[in-house]
Amino acid sequence: MSTLLGAGRRNVPEDEKPTVRFERVLDAPQARVFEVWTRPEHILKWWRPRHFHRIDLEVMDVRPGGELRFRMFHPEGAQYVSSSIYREVLPTSRLVYFETCYENDRLFHKTLQTVHFDALGAQTRVRVLSCFEWVADRPAHFTTDFMEAMWLDGWKDNGEHMAAYLASLSA
Predict the structure, then answer these.
(1) CATH number of domain containing 23
(2) Counted domains in the chain
(3) What is the pTM of this model?
């Protein structure tokens, strides 16, 4: 399930900012899903949105104040650097981090991400809530609808890859 809340408004309260929600149930226990999400030896096995042909993990320090930084390469030549600072890390159940992303050294987006890992017996429901901040002077084609579609595509891709990776660990 995924939805976008909010509209093209600037300087609005947190609960009215454009928000994308993504949810996926995975066939693995909560502790395993959290581990695969937060350990560098696992993350590049599943973090692969299809719009990028290469992704480099530069930093992964999962603790409050720690950083997660990816460099993503688009086939048409653009480079995206996604840098997140963890605000909250509750082992096996929740991550909160603020992400700033640059496209070719130009600010592309900012978002507060909250990821919940809900135990469902032998399964885990992952819920991602992404609350966007407006970026001044962003190119016109990066509309709210465009950002929603790209964001959800990326999370869907990652969800598929993570499900397959988790299955391979169980085999």
Answers:
(1) 3.30.530.20
(2) 1
(3) 0.85
